[in-house]
Amino acid sequence: MGAGKTTVGRLLAATLGVTFLDSDHAVEARAGKPVQEIFVDDGEAAFRTLEREAVAAALDEHDGVLALGGGAVLDPATRALLEGHAVVFLRVGLSDAVKRVGLGAGRPLLLGNVRARVKQLLDERTPIYEGLARISVDTDGRSPQDVAAEIAAGLDRLPHRTEER
Ligand SMILES: Nc1ncnc2c1ncn2[C@@H]1O[C@H](COP(=O)(O)OP(=O)(O)O)[C@@H](O)[C@H]1O
Ligand SMILES: O=C(O)C1=C[C@@H](OP(=O)(O)O)[C@@H](O)[C@H](O)C1
Ligand SMILES: [Mg+2]
C-alpha cells in the first residue's frame, strides 16, 4: 500500500501502449461496491476470495499491465499463477509509504495506527514480494514517471519476455 502500484501501473501501460487493469477495480466491479465496503459488510476473507478470483481471471484474459492489491500475493494459488509472469516489486520505505497513504482512507487494513500497520505489513510481506519479483524498483523519493520508465527498461532486458509474459 502506497508503493504506487496503481499509479505506476497505469503509467507503464500507457508507456508500453497496452491496457491497464487493477485487481482492486476488478474486485469492485464483481462486488458492485468499493473495497472498503466489502471489508466492512462482508469481511476480509470475502474480499480475499473475490480478489483471488479476479486475479485469476485477469491473468487468464487480460494481456496488458495488471496492478495487484498489496495483499493479493499472500494467497498461495495466486502466487502459483504468477510464476512465469514479469512480476515487478515496487519497493517503498516506511516513511514514503506513510506519506503517500495519508490517513489511510479507502485502505481498511490501515485503520487505527497507520504508521504501525504499514510497518507491520511491510515487515511481513517484503520477503514474499522479493521472492516473486523478476524486477525490483526502489520508489522512495522518485516520481511515478521515473519508476515507470525504469520498469519499462527492465522489461526490455528480461530474457524471453514475449514467451513468458
Ligand atoms: N513515486 C511516487 N511518489 C510520490 N507519490 C506517489 C508515488 N507513487 C504513487 N504515489 C501516490 O501515492 C498514493 C498511493 O499510490 P497508489 O498508486 O494508490 O499505490 P498502491 O496501489 O501501491 O497502494 C497516491 O496518492 C499516488 O499519487
Ligand atoms: O495490502 C492489502 O492487503 C490491501 C491493499 C489494497 O490495495 P493497494 O495495495 O493497491 O493499496 C487493497 O487491495 C486492500 O485495501 C487490501
Ligand atoms: Mg493500488
Task: Give an overview in words.
It is found in: Cytoplasm. Keywords: Amino-acid biosynthesis, Aromatic amino acid biosynthesis, ATP-binding, Cytoplasm, Kinase, Magnesium, Metal-binding, Nucleotide-binding, Transferase. One of its GO terms (molecular function) is shikimate kinase activity. Monomer. The protein has 165 residues and is mainly alpha-helical. The protein has one domain (5-155): 3-Layer(aba) Sandwich (Rossmann fold). 60% of the residues lie in helices and 8% in strands. It contains 9 helices and 4 strands, in the order αβαααβαβααβαα. It has helices at residues 5-16, 23-31, 35-42, 44-61, 76-82, 94-101, 114-132, 144-157, 161-164, and strands at 20-22, 65-67, 88-91, 135-138. Strands 1-2 form a two-stranded parallel sheet. The longest helix has 19 residues, at 114-132. It starts with a helix and ends with a helix. The mean pLDDT is 95. The structure holds adenosine-5'-diphosphate, shikimate-3-phosphate (S3P) and magnesium ion (MG). Magnesium ion (MG) binds at residues 5-6, 22, 24, 67. Residues 1-8, 100, 139, 142-144, 147 line the site of adenosine-5'-diphosphate.
